[in-house]
Amino acid sequence: MRKRDPADEHETPVRTHGGAPLHAPPADAGEAYRLAYAAAQPDAGRRVVAIALEASEFDWNVAPGVTFQAWGFNGQVPGPTLEAEVGDVLEIRLTNRLPEPTVVHWHGLRVPAAMDGTEMVQRPIAPGDTFTYRFRLPDAGTFWYHSHFNETVQLERGLYGALVVRSAEEPTFDHERVLVVDDVELARDGKVKPPGGWIESHDGREGSTRLVNGKQEPELTMAAGQIERWRIINAASARYLRLSIGGRPFRIVGTDGGLIGSPVPATEILLAPADRVELAVGPFAEGEIHRVETLPFNRGSFKAHRKPELFATLRVGPQAPSKARIPETLRRIEPLVTGPVEANREVRLGFTLGLKHGVEFTVNKEQHHRADPVRVGELQVWDVVNRSPVHHPFHLHGFFFQVLQVNGKPPGFLSWEDTINVAAFGSVRIAWMPDDRPGEWMYHCHILEHHAAGMMAHFAVLR
Length: 463
Ligand code: C2O
Ligand code: CU
What we know:
The structure is a single chain. This protein has 463 residues and is mainly beta. 6% of the residues lie in helices and 43% in strands. The strands form six sheets. A seven-stranded mixed beta sheet has the order 11-10-9-13-18-15-16, with no helix packed on it. Strands 23, 24, 26, 28, 30 and 31 form a six-stranded mixed beta sheet that branches. It has a five-stranded mixed beta sheet with strand order 12-20-19-14-17, with no helix packed on it. Residues 1-20 have low confidence and may be disordered. It binds CU-O-CU linkage and copper (II) ion. The site of copper (II) ion has 6 residues, from loops.
């Protein structure tokens, strides 16, 4: 049990690093961008996947008679699922047709800093402007892309999409589906309710309209006797998804950073905001109907979750033959750390009461914290310590980490992650290796309201 330091109680005044939060690209950002652009070349035999994305406002229908004024990519919510293979180069020409600036972050992708899509590495894309992201895809897995500007508005209104990268060696499934889970709070006038309020800044927004792939509580159908690969992305602002498929067993085959070592049987799984998971689902028998739902989960929010809430209904249709082959060994993951190790950094997640948001969220007692740099090739072992009574999903940009301990205990299995839940007054020890991608990086809580209220840090990776 970790001792609580009285100096970390929430009365402590918050320091900021000299006034306004610093979110601006460095002077050499243009040059770093040009270098990264030119360096992005496909592997031998692979290709450049070129995609045009347009961010704009449109009416989006979530259910019969339910339409809202969305902001999304290419006229749909979620935006198109981008698909490519390891070694491909993704070239995305993004045009902003919104009435305000935007930037797009490639969540989970190990791209050069200049392509990370944050205000730390580029200037926001002004209305009417176009910006091209170009990078090589080094890893297979389920990722996503989303606005990284005015997120509590832009993401909430629909500026997100899935990104799937495949490798030459994947287990064989009968069918694959991508499920992007979200919730949205609609006002009577057909608009998304604007952010605001003390409770919302504390809890984060949880919308009462629950969406899967942009539709309200849709019906999914699958064939009896088959095993499907479900790639699930939690794109919600704040909601934790304690996912159950009618209480039936499934197998976890992947997490944020792709496949895990071997399949792990489970009947439920927790996806904090921004988390991804890949599941082997089925086989079921014809006629079965299952609730794809979130079970009650207490994350310390004012809003209680006492009942399961439905996201989709799964109906099992007639039998079909199965060719699924899911090997016991999916992948070999080398541990970054073997044996005992001390942390070389502590990241403290805290909060304070303040005038701007009601509740201000901090990292090491600072809003928009400036953290110490790290060096390429120097192993990082961080204790992420939550000094607040609410859970926080910790997200590191651009690098995968391995979880060494959750509240002092090793996790159930080894995996690569970019987002990990840190329970109220809990802690997580992670290890990660800064590879040779110097530049400005960040980490933050992925509850969008907490991120906006300061629970984030910038740091440099130096050669
Ligand atoms: Cu998915 Cu900085 O975020
Ligand atoms: Cu948080």
